[in-house]
Amino acid sequence: MWNRSMVWMTLLMAYAVSVPLGAQNKAAPTIRVANTELSWTMPKQVVLDTLKKNVNNLLVPERKDDNSVWWVFDRQANQASARLRFDKQDKLLWVERSWTPTTDRADDFVKVLYNLVSQHGFADCQIKPSHYAEPEGESEEVLLACEGGGIRITHMQADAGNTRISRAVIYEITNRPE
What we know:
It is built from 3 helices and 10 strands. The protein is of the alpha+beta class.
């Protein structure tokens, strides 16, 4: 009788120890943004503070009246490196990472686009074109919207005094894993 109760007690203790260890080994999915590893489960303030540790990053809310979308600018490259959207619970909802080449050469742009598309196994995709015009300028956009993410290619034009500024950008969109 004593041996049977010892066996049950040993099994119960082994189970009690293994359940928390198994839960600890289950890592939250992560995403790399601006040379920083982020967890999809991090609260917004932790994400922003973690990105700010890199002095090369400048973080700016997209709109002053809504801080659910943040831009991450790369001071060294002098361009945006990412755009982050948070849900109502202040968790990452999606991330747009810039793949825009630092040169304005068309062949560099095509190479980057090819590399981005060839890395992903996109499924169930739709192509959505759009055009925006405002007094400050206009933009044309092609969105490859796929299950779990996609690619956004935007061409923007604006007048700055007597100069017409034109820029094309490529962003990889990654949705939070469910």
